[in-house]
Design a protein that fits this description.
Radius of gyration of chain A: 16 Å
Structural class of chain B: alpha+beta
Number of strands of chain A: 7
Helix content of chain A: 25-40%
Structural class of chain A: alpha/beta
Order of helices and strands of chain B: HEEEHEHEEEHHEHEHEHEEE
Number of helices of chain B: 8
Number of strands of chain B: 13
Shape of chain A: globular
Order of helices and strands of chain A: EHHEEHEHEEHEH
Oligomer: heterodimer
Strand content of chain A: 15-25%
Distance between the termini of chain A: 33 Å
Chain lengths: 195, 337
């Protein structure tokens, strides 16, 4: 088991992937390679942690879709999409963009002895970006595979990946990452710590 | 006190209103409260020249890192008085409360008012409390008005700014806005970037003690940010300014967040940051005084005033190019203060 590494998925939930046609199409293209990637990581013993957005009814800042609130507690739409889920996976509820914001994620990762997080899922320019920044501030090495993140807007995705690479993450395709984990040769990290 | 939450009857002026004031508001404000519960506060002043200001505070969320709506309501008004050169002395405190607002939260806000007023050495001399139905305000809105006395002969203002003046910024730019935005959405920056909310009367006093005649103008860099302040002063004084991007005090995490959000720290609101326009020969001394103060440690000289040119404010970028710092129209981020 590669105890030091964990993969985090963001917002892979029925309500959220079905927000609009653009997003459905982006997620449809992303799903097969992403499920294969997760399966390979599970085989290598990498913990998979799904960050599950639960919108609170009393949160005035929660995004509403045409007047209704998606991904509410215990709703069908809040469930993690079955294709991405396995029995061995962990799920951590969150109420905001960053998976660390007022959640048990940091404690769970510490219990697992994790020092490197692979951040994946949807959307690259929001939850992936904020969770990556938060992880970086908490002292984790952060890896973002550009083919394991998804956005409905290609320009947003490109800009977010550029931001991630320049500030807080190593950008590494899934094939390289899987090989590196299998060979226990994760890359040297060159992100400059914030003073 | 009856109940755990604010009720409409707390604002009717009857017995429950009196109970709220007598059992919660006045005791929580403690020594900084000197109101006599009459229709007006009657004040004896030692001077013939005063500064008066007022501001309303609707920040969301009401509690944040390094402050809350109570602290910001005191600091915002104190700082407006201080940058005019006056010594803040008196505040009014008006609360508009939403029915159902927790009494415990109100107590916490009042504690912050007391602490901030105590630190700024201002007295709360008059107040008002209104309660409105659920949804008519969001939890609590506060208005404060302030009175400051001029302890020395001083004439600060945009008209005093002239070519050659140095431009000093006393604190990190944009931290308050980034903190509040991050807290609202859980962006991950809220623990690394805190609000700069602070009373700056002490910092200003230190500077004016030694350099009253060399400081020409001061502005509280709140909504609209430094970019707005510079444009307003340039237009008001009939001059232009050039700032250096590499000199701007911007925390790394703030730059990261601003870049992610697509906002410019030049235009972000601050709640404990002053822009000073200072005689060039005294700029280094003033900067040293500012940096000596706990709230001024990030201070920098960021630019210089020059004769009026076609562009009011320009900025030399780190890559050597020059850009115009435009006056921001609209697109104000809501409810940051």
């Amino acid at each position: 088991m590669v105890a030091s590494c964990a993969v985090l998925t963001n917002d892979l939930q029925y309500d959220l992937i079905n927000k609009n046609e653009e997003r459905k199409a982006a997620v449809a293209a992303f799903t097969p390679p992403m499920t294969s990637f997760l399966a390979e990581l599970r085989t290598l013993g990498v913990p998979v942690v799904h960050l599950q957005l639960i919108n609170r009814e009393d949160d005035p800042h929660a995004e509403r879709y045409d007047g209704w609130l998606p991904a509410t507690k215990d709703s069908e739409g809040a469930r993690i999409v079955a294709e991405f889920l396995a029995d061995t996976d962990l799920t951590v509820e969150k109420n905001k963009d960053s998976g660390f914001f007022e959640t048990e994620l940091h404690d769970r990762l510490q219990e697992l002895g994790v020092d490197t997080v692979v951040i994946t899922g949807m959307q690259t320019q929001i939850c992936v970006q904020t969770t990556a920044a938060d992880a970086f501030f908490r002292g984790y090495n952060v890896i973002v595979p550009p083919d394991a993140v998804v956005s409905a807007n290609a320009e947003d995705q490109a800009r977010a990946l550029e931001w991630l690479g320049s500030y807080c993450a190593t950008i590494m395709p899934t094939t390289e990452l899987v090989a590196a984990i299998a060979q226990d040769s994760l890359p040297e990290f060159s992100v400059v710590p914030i003073p | 006190m009856t109940g755990d939450v604010i009720q409409l009857d707390h604002g009717t002026g009857g017995g429950m209103s009196q109970e709220l004031i007598a059992e919660l508001i006045a005791p929580r404000l403690g020594a900084v409260h000197s109101g006599r519960m009459e229709d007006s506060a009657v004040l004896e002043l030692d001077v013939t020249r005063i500064a008066v200001t007022t501001d309303s505070f609707v920040v969301d969320p009401i509690f944040f890192g390094n402050g809350d709506i109570g602290k910001i309501a005191v600091c915002g008004t104190v700082n407006d008085l201080a940058v005019s050169g006056a010594v803040p002395r008196y505040l009014t405190l008006s609360l508009v409360l939403e029915e159902g607002f927790p009494i415990a939260d109100l107590a916490r806000v009042l504690d912050s008012v007391r602490e901030a007023a105590g630190q700024a050495r201002v007295e709360v001399v008059a107040g008002d409390t209104k309660v409105v139905r659920r949804g008519e305000v969001d939890k609590i809105f506060i208005n404060t008005a302030g009175i400051g006395e001029f302890a020395r002969e001083i004439e600060l203002g945009m008209g005093q700014v002239s070519p050659g003046d140095a431009v000093i910024v006393t604190g990190w730019l944009g931290n308050h806005s980034i903190h509040i935005l991050s807290l609202r959405e859980g962006l991950g920056f809220e623990e690394r970037v805190l609000s700069d909310c602070a009373p700056l009367d002490g910092l200003v006093w230190n500077v004016l003690e030694d350099h009253a005649s060399q400081v020409h103008c001061m502005r509280d860099i709140t909504r609209g940010g430094l970019g707005t302040v510079l444009n307003e002063v340039a237009d008001g004084a009939g001059v232009s300014m050039r700032i250096e991007q590499s000199s701007l005090p911007i925390q790394q995490e703030t730059a990261m967040a601003a870049d992610m959000l697509g906002v410019d720290p030049l235009y972000l609101a601050n709640e404990g940051n002053i822009c000073m326009f200072v005689d060039a020969d005294s700029a280094a001394d003033v900067l040293e005084l500012v940096r000596w103060h706990p709230y001024g440690r990030a201070a920098r000289i960021v630019g210089v005033v020059h004769e009026r040119a076609p562009s009011a404010v320009t900025m030399a970028r780190a890559d050597g190019t020059e850009t115009v710092v435009e006056l921001l129209y609209g697109a104000e981020l809501p409810r940051l203060c």
